Amino acid sequence: MGEIISGERRRSSAALNERASRAASGLASLGVGPGDLIAIYLRNDLPFLEATFAAGLLGAYPTPVNWHYSETEARYLFENSGARAIVIHADLIDGVRAALPAGVPVLVVATPPEIAQAYGIDAAPVPAGMIDWSSWLEGFAPFEQPVADGPGTIIYTSGTTGHPKGVRRRQPTAEQAAVSAGMLAMAFGFADWLERPDEIVTVITGPMYHSAPNAYGAFSARLGAHVILEPRFDPEELLALIERHRVTHIHMVPIMFNRLLRLPEAVKARYDLSSLKFVVHAAAPCPAPIKRAMIEWWGPVINEYYGSTETGAVVFCSSQEWLAHPGTVGRAMPGSDVRVIDAEGNSLPAGEIGEVVARTAGLADFTYHGDDAKRAASEKAGLIAPGDIGYLDADGFLYLCDRAKDMIISGGANIYPAEIEAELHKMPGVADCGVFGIPDEEFGEAVCAVVQPMPGAELTEAEVRAYLRGLMAGYKVPKRVDFHAELPREDSGKIFKRKLREPFWEGLDRRI
């Protein structure tokens, strides 16, 4: 039987499930039932999993909330979701107190020392007069009513325009639940370990309010694996955790690779990483030089899958496949239909760029919470469009060019920022970069690059443009190059291009 570890606290899978069962009884006493939503406003902590599993026992939807939200953003999610209860860390209350809906029970989790230390804050007790999650659930007997099939988590996808939308799956049948479990087991590298889950040791490196870390954390804990909750990603701490706990499996995002590779060689050589069996990354494109360097360092344990909250994982790629097809994100997983289509919905031949669409047969369908029209618009050629541009090669491997919304149209030519970013990542002195379109009176849009230099590196706009001019057509070379010490990021590792792009388009009639 596995256990969940957070700082100095250890809780067996059985104990966590019992607490979740008691919490389910408590939530039922508040009127929460099948189809209702529970908002989880927590960092990576034991109660995150307790509340998630409790909701599932009732047939309710756990709905993680990005705790970075402003009061306005939090109010929108609470109201749009129709949350019937809110579970929140004590130190986060003041930031959203005015957004808490009247009449909705608020269950407060004391902020533990490991989270306080990771974020440089004081450990916060439950405020007087508010309901303490831990003592509250202990006042209820384990849930003994018929257990509902959990419909899954509602994830609010990060929006670049307007408000985020909650992806709400239909109640799955037993067959659909099995398809989902099989898909996740393959993507997460657990397929060969299902009969011996107590041999799996993993670290949750990303925030569980994001879709992939949420699915990975919940699946690992339900399976009975040993799960270590990292409050906040730290590259050397991860190496130390791998060595100390003999970690076998990890789910990561590419920015974590970048930060690991930037550690001094002496630090990288200090830790024994030989226990690693399966490391998988997703959520954001991984520059080819970064991925190759990780495979050289950690060995052929680096894997990748591609998908979205709406589609689930639909393609997969091992280290060996990637080395044979550099730059690919993988080939269709069993049961997945992955195509590249033109504007009329026709499938394109190998090598031709178009919109990526996909679906996994037998997976429970979804809608957007309160917005069926948006769900209908996401369907193209009978499949789901995650919003990516790419192409398939002759062997069926998928390559992503960019997000459809990020494509730059300059003088009628389509320009894919990811192509330019891939070359910039190879330039000496470049730590990271973001490329996007800015207004141009003559061409409609012009290419702009924002570069984050390596510490101590000195780069100029002329040097960046000259470097790229030797690698690509002149119309793709950025007309403007800015430099930032740090690029704004979502916790998934994705660069927040909207924040970089907004100032250029402010006041203009264009979606950003």
From TrEMBL:
EC number, as in UniProt: 6.2.1.3
GO molecular function: long-chain fatty acid-CoA ligase activity
InterPro entries: AMP-bd_C (IPR025110), AMP-bd_C_sf (IPR045851), AMP-binding_CS (IPR020845), AMP-dep_synth/lig_dom (IPR000873), ANL_N_sf (IPR042099)
Keywords of this entry: Ligase
Domain AMP-dependent synthetase/ligase: 7-364
SUPFAM superfamilies linked to this entry: Acetyl-CoA synthetase-like (SSF56801)
Domain AMP-binding enzyme C-terminal: from-to ranges: 419-494
NCBIfam families in the cross-refs: PRK12406.1
PANTHER family linked: ACYL-COA SYNTHETASE, MEDIUM-CHAIN ACYL-COA LIGASE ACSF2, MITOCHONDRIAL
Family: Belongs to the ATP-dependent AMP-binding enzyme family.
Name the record gives this protein: Long-chain acyl-CoA synthetase
